[in-house]
Every structure is written in C-alpha cells, then in structure tokens.
Amino acid sequence: MAESASDALTPAQLVQHALTARQRAYAPYSHYLVGAAVLAADGTVILGCNVENASYPATICAERVALTAAIAQGKRNLRAIAVATRDGGTPCGICRQVMAELGPEMKVYISDEQGDFRVTSVRELLPDSFSRSSLLT
Ligand SMILES: [Zn+2]
Q1: pTM higher than 0.85, yes or no?
Q2: How far is the CA of 18 from the centre of ligand 1 (A)?
Q3: How do the domains of the chain map onto residue ranges?
Q4: How far is the CA of 93 from the centre of ligand 1 (A)?
C-alpha cells in the first residue's frame, strides 16, 4: 500500500506511519506486532507489517513487506525506513541484508510503541555486508 507524503516528511511522521502499519500486523502466533514505513525519494511512503503463517518459515517481516512493495511500486531510490515494535526491537539479520541490498544509504528509525525512536543507519546495522560488488568482480 502507498500513501502520499510531502517532501518535508519528518522522521517522527515516518515513525507514525510505521505505528499505523503495526496495527495491521498479522501475528497470531508470536503476538509481536511490527510495522514498517519506507520513505522513497519522491516522498511516497510504503507500509509493511509482519505477516505470520502456521508454517512458520512462510512468515515475512514488516521490513521486507515494505521494501519489496516499494520495489513493486517502482520505487528504487529509498531514503529511510521506520520500524515500530512494542519495545524498540531492531530488524532481524535477513531484513538487514535486504535493507543493504535495496537501500544501503537509508536512515533507520527504530521506534517503540509509544513513538519514541532512535536514529541509526543500514551501514551501522550491517557493517561490512555482503553486496553486489562481491558478485560483479
Ligand atoms: Zn526481519
């Protein structure tokens, strides 16, 4: 899903989008609700939430829902991602790898359910990552 946003979207506003997405999470097993909001360079905000499955490995994280939806919407220049959880939990390793692939320059806002957030980056979350440069040499 996409929602229009102005170019002046603040980090706090992006976090609010992630909190909205979090309310849509499908997490009947873990009850750990996660929301994500990706900000594209054109101001578009793309939401994602975790979607669990009775076949546990079929579960997909909120971050990857939002990032892959951004690609499907033709958004390749991604500026930031906000992630909202109950306790300010950070993205899992698989999501960090996908973030490094699709938005290596992104700012990352990690929020708790109150909207209190801290700022980090993909490079801080996954330093020295495996990347396309390893495959193209
Ligand atoms: Zn993940």
Answers
A1: yes
A2: 15
A3: 2-135
A4: 6
DSSP assignment string, 75-98: ---EEEEEEE-SB-PPPPHHHHHH
pLDDT digits (tens, 9 = 90+) for 44-90: 999 999 999 999 999 999 999 999 999 999 999 999 999 999 999 99
Distance between start and end Cα atoms, the chain: 37
Q: Out of 3.40.50.300, 3.20.20.450, 3.30.420.40, 3.40.140.10, select the CATH number for domain 2-135.
A: 3.40.140.10
Q: Is 113 a catalytic residue?
A: no
Tokens at residue 132, please? Answer: 């396309």
